[in-house]
Design brief:
The protein is of the alpha/beta class and 276 residues long. The chain contains 10 helices and 10 strands. It has a single domain, classed as TIM Barrel. Strands 3-4-5-6-7-8-9-10 form an 8-stranded parallel sheet. Strands 1-2 form a two-stranded antiparallel ribbon. Helix 1 packs across helix 2, helix 3 packs across helix 4 and helix 7 packs across helix 8.
Length: 276
């Protein structure tokens, strides 16, 4: 189990990815995103997750520059948006993202959603970027098992990561089991279900027992399930608190109680039914 914020999981190509990072979904471009990323890096975070559609890549890049931390010590993820999918478009979108971030390579580049009829060509572009050394690892986001199987049927390089909505109300066991079997690292977005889970009585009770916050309990549950997690926050106190999860361990009984809260309930769209 990871025992510090700097601990990493090794992806199937040997690249080391931090177990824990900062997500910047819905964080405003400009001062808000710059300050939140700087706060995270100042407090020991190494992994920052953004996306073209978040429209804050420039701020993330600015914060990286301002942080003074050597580039190779950081792990930066961004994603290709749906309207930019397809082979040539993806290659172009990658250049745009890299330019906005002010970086000369990415650590992880993801297909944001499985756009029907396009994600295979998009994957071919990611494979090219990977072979050209422009990105250290490539993966997908919001892929169900059938999307993964379809992609694997043509992939020369297996995705290293699948980032999905994952929390105690949506444990996605089928996807998790499939990814484990294939050596694809699962990563959680919206791990706290946008705060909905913080009042869940079972979680509150476990939190009191461990003298931790409900958020810390959920994030610890992710890690003990071997799921990389990237909670979002813009408050430095919360950024620090979210990462303060390496000094305790949930029992197997705690883990089962939390997992049994599953009701296959999403806060985001279903990857089989989205129209953007």
């Amino acid at each position: 189990m990871p025992n510090s914020l700097q601990d990493t999981t090794t992806l199937h190509n040997g690249v080391k990815m931090p177990w824990f990072g900062l997500g910047v979904f819905k964080v405003q471009e400009g001062e808000e995103v710059v300050e939140s990323v700087k706060a995270a890096i100042r407090n020991g975070y190494k992994s920052i997750d953004t996306a073209a559609v978040y429209k804050n890549e420039e701020g993330v890049g600015q914060a990286i520059k301002d942080s003074g931390v050597p580039r190779e010590e950081l792990f930066i993820t961004t994603k290709v948006w749906n309207s930019d999918q397809g082979y040539e478009n993806t290659l172009q979108a990658f250049e745009t993202s890299l330019e906005k971030l002010g970086l000369d390579y990415l650590d992880l580049y993801l297909i944001h959603w499985p756009v029907a009829g396009k994600y295979k060509d998009t994957w071919k572009a990611l494979e090219k970027l990977y072979k050209d050394g422009r990105v250290k690892a490539i993966g997908v986001s919001n892929f169900h098992v059938h999307h993964l199987e379809d992609l694997l049927s043509i992939a020369e390089i297996k995705p290293m990561v699948n980032q999905i909505e994952y929390h105690p109300h949506l444990t996605q066991k089928e996807v998790h089991d499939f990814c484990k079997k294939e050596g694809i690292q699962l990563e959680a977005w919206s791990p706290l279900k946008q705060g909905v889970l913080l009042d869940e009585p079972v979680i509150v009770e476990i939190a009191e027992k461990h003298q931790k916050s409900p958020a810390q309990i959920i994030l610890r549950w992710d890690l003990q399930n071997e799921v990389v997690t990237i909670p979002k926050s813009i408050k430095e106190t919360r950024i620090i608190e979210n990462a303060d999860i390496f000094d305790f361990e949930l029992t197997s009984e705690d883990m089962e109680k939390i997992s049994s809260l599953n009701k296959n309930e999403r806060i985001g769209p279903d990857p089989d039914n989205f129209n953007f």
